[in-house]
Amino acid sequence: MLQGPYGSLERDRLLLRLPLTSFSVLTVLLPLVGLIACLFIALMFHFEDATYTHCGVTNFLPSISAAISRVPERYIWRCCIGLHSAPRFLLSAAYFSFYRGRFASSRLELLMSGLTLVCSLAENSGLLLLTYVSSTETYNVHKNGFIVFIVSSLLHMLSTCFLWHRINRHSMQTEEVTSYRWKRRLFLVNISCCLAAAYFFRRHNKYCETGVYTLFALCEYLMVFSNMAFHMTAFWDFGTKELIVATPSEDKRY
């Protein structure tokens, strides 16, 4: 149950009560910690394998796909993504409910809210697919999951920025203004890193130059970290809303 500062739970037995701001931050911290751990282990213990390229040129950083495809990195990453996926789906629904409340009488914004929800669900599903099918197992499936993740992520950021631009036009609350400004900045950083990563990846495959794949990997890291930071802006979005888990009282059971 998503609960604001209103409502009553006197007749229900409370099991969990957590501010939605803290819940959203903890959700993002799971993949962040998992990714940092995987990169550290890959660089320290699997450097040669993780940085290998098909044309044999010198490379200093593993791609994310390479960093999460070996043991134990694979299991660390899958555990973190698996634990974070259900809260991410819940937050997608929470945002949709939030937008519906804000734009109840505006058809365009309601349509954009629906698009944002679909993109958010697709982004999380693509992330699950590329996580549980590694590049060393079935490359084409992993690649398609990565494409779904990237495309839906960019569309989700774009539609979210549009909706928050509309909110910002009619709101002077400091937290909402801050949230919108950071969302806009992080979207620009993310799409810039995405374009740079695509350029370096194509150049590496075409010319096999030393260090180019390292630049691709660096841009990929920045792209993923900026994506996580974008989702972290939920800290400013939900105010006093809470996540509440409770069991019904005896007179509500049948």
Structure, described:
- The chain has helices spanning 20-45, 47-50, 64-67, 73-102, 107-132, 139-169, 174-207, 212-232, 234-237; strands at 2-3, 13-19, 242-247.
- The protein is mainly alpha-helical and 254 residues long.
- A three-stranded antiparallel beta sheet has the order 1-3-2.
Order of helices and strands: EEHHHHHHHHHE
Strand adjacency order, main sheet: 1-3-2
Low-confidence stretches: 3-7
Mean pLDDT: 89
Query: How many beta-strand segments?
Result: 3
Nearest-angstrom radius of gyration? Answer: 21 Å
The description of the largest β-sheet is: 3 strands, antiparallel
Output the structural class. mainly alpha
The amount of helix comes to over 70%
Strand content: 5-15%
Distance between the first and last residues' Cα: 20 Å
- Which geometry do the CA atoms define? globular
Number of helices: 9
